[in-house]
Amino acid sequence: PPSDPGTVALSAAAVGNATDNCPGNVQYQISVDGGAFSSNFTFNCSHTGARIVTLRASDSAGASTCNAAVNIRDLSAPCFTVPANISLNCSSNPNLLDPSNTGAPTAIYDNCDAMTTVTYSDTYLPSPPECPNHKYITRTWTVADHATPPNSTVQTQSIEVLDNNPPVWTL
What we know:
Layout: E1 8-11, H1 12-15, E2 27-32, E3 40-43, E4 49-59, E5 62-72, E6 79-81, E7 86-89, H2 99-102, E8 106-109, E9 117-125, E10 135-144, E11 152-162
Parallel strand pairs: 7-11
Antiparallel strand pairs: 1-3, 2-4, 4-5, 6-8, 9-10, 10-11
């Protein structure tokens, strides 16, 4: 991976392959979208999308150029820490399974997007016959960036809802 996440450096000399009658005398330069020529260019997240890259090979007799249309894409998915698995006591609280009670992803990081989208879906697993009030839930967390197309990371959390309280008589 690059030392600076979300960037990649392109050296004109590394991609240049022009032929010349005096081979060691050729100098290569690169320009992006009509900008100034230099020996290298560092692409970052602000450069995603269609770009025109121009390579220039020159020696004392002159210069020639070659254009290429390139599409710079963010291919790195976000990363995050999934909430810990949790067991909760059954309650009449209608928000018992809300992430404020069960935990939400933390340490969310994406190389190009500070505003990722966090979603979840719940899958209820069958309760065993001897414990019909127990609930077993697999919560699937997805964190996606806004690249085109989006990159996403999926992780799961186990949630168990237990009925630890016996009935209480009210007289």
